[in-house]
Amino acid sequence: MMDNDTRPTEQTADEAAAAELEGVPEELLEKGDAQAELVEALKADLEAAKQDVLYAKAETQNVRRRMEKDIADARAYSATAFARDILSVADNLSRALESIPAELREDDKMKNLVAGLEATGREIDKVFASHGISRIAAKGLPLDPHQHQAMLEIPSADVEPGTVLQELQAGYMIKDRLLRAAMVAVAKKPD
User: Fold this and answer.
1) Quick check: helix, strand or coil at residue 142?
2) Which one, of 94, 145, 87, lies nearest residue 117 by Cα?
3) Cβ-contact 133, 170 below 8 angstroms
4) How far apart (Å, rounded) are the C-alpha atoms in residues 151 and 165?
5) CATH of domain 135-191
């Protein structure tokens, strides 16, 4: 059995580290502290660089998505300016057809002209449809300020106020965007 005087003494971790460093020159100890600080600074820089890389990757992905959307929009809506210009041609063709009286439509000399104008109108409608251009429904519907432009109000007891009674000029959409608002006459309460 060991008595208390012969028992080995237990050292704490700090005492053990101090014992290991005994006899090490002071300048080497200072260099060790400087190297430890340098290692800690490099670790912090590495962590910051990792964060910067993650942010750069996220930003690159966002830019790529925005560019893909811009390209898709450019493809879908590239014909917008041209379509607006062609709408006036379609309007004039419709006016020409509407201006031909019913008795002249049956005249042998006018039948071919009317048939040609109607065929041209159908072809324009077909081309519009193939490019995603559609006519806005208006007559009999409530006024939609996103699609209709009220040009005048007509007193009417037959329908709800705000209902489109007459379409003065057709409106069109290209895909899901407004190309031209429909110009309409809207019902109001009679005086």
Assistant:
1) strand
2) 94
3) no
4) 11
5) 2.30.22.10
Helix (H, G, I), strand (E, B) or coil at 50: helix
All residue ranges of the chain with pLDDT < 70 are 1-32
For 88-94, which contacts have Cβ atoms below 8 Å and span 24 or more sequence positions? Answer: 89/124, 90/121, 90/124, 90/128, 91/169, 91/170, 93/117, 93/120, 93/121, 93/124, 94/121, 94/170
Q: What are the domain boundaries of the chain? A: 25-76, 79-131, 135-191
Q: Which pLDDT score, from 0 to 100, does residue 68 have? A: 95
The count of other CB atoms within 10 Å of the CB of residue 174 is 20
Q: Say which residue the tokens 């020159």 belong to.
A: 25
pLDDT confidence of residue 170: 92
pTM beyond cutoff 0.85: no
Type of residue numbered 163: T
Distance CA 176, CA 160 (A): 28
Predicted confidence at residue 146, as pLDDT, reads 94
CB atoms within 10 A of CB 94: 15
What is the pLDDT, as a whole number, of residue 1?
Answer: 46
Q: What is the 3-state secondary structure (H, E, C) of 76-140?
A: HHCCHHHHHHHHHHHHHHHHHHHHCCHHHHCCHHHHHHHHHHHHHHHHHHHHHHHCCEEECCCCC
- Token pair 């028992």 in the structure block, residue: 7
Q: In DSSP terms, which residues pair with 169 in a beta bridge?
A: 183
